[in-house]
Amino acid sequence: MLVCPNCRGKDIGKIGTQQFYCWNCFIELTVFDEKLAVHQVEADGSLSSLDDLFTEDERKIQW
């Protein structure tokens, strides 16, 4: 089971190929080469990267 790097929650839903959504903190996660790209969904539907808020280790996939 995937763990959210932001809230450490496990309430993660799959929304596409290699794309997931955290229902606890409402962020989108995309898997690239065993690392997560973390994005906030804006009101207009666009995505803003949150990768700069996390270290490389924090973005490693934890199952």
Commentary on this structure:
This protein is 0% helix and 40% strand. With 63 residues, the chain is mainly beta. It has a five-stranded antiparallel β-sheet, with no helix packed on it. β3 (27-32) and β4 (35-41) form a beta hairpin. The mean pLDDT is 93.
What ranges have pLDDT less than 50 throughout 5 or more consecutive residues?
A: none
Q: Report, as a whole number of angstroms, the end-to-end distance.
A: 5 Å
Oligomer: single chain
For the secondary structure, the number of strands is 5
- The count of helical stretches stands at 0
Could you tell me the strand content as a percent range? 35-45%
**How do the SSEs run, as a string of H and E?**
EEEEE
What fraction, in percent, of the residue positions are helical? Answer: under 10%
Characterize the overall form: globular
Q: Quote the average pLDDT.
A: 93
Strands across the major sheet, in which order?
1-2-3-4-5
Largest sheet: 5 strands, antiparallel
Specify Rg, calculated over alpha carbons: 11 Å
Structural class comes to mainly beta
Set out the fold topology:
Elements: E1 12-16, E2 19-22, E3 27-32, E4 35-41, E5 47-49
Task: Throw out a few tags for this protein.
single chain, 63 residues, mainly beta, 5-stranded antiparallel β-sheet, 5 strands, 0% helix, 40% strand, globular
Concise synopsis of the structure shown:
By secondary structure, the chain is mostly beta strands. 0% of the residues lie in helices and 40% in strands.
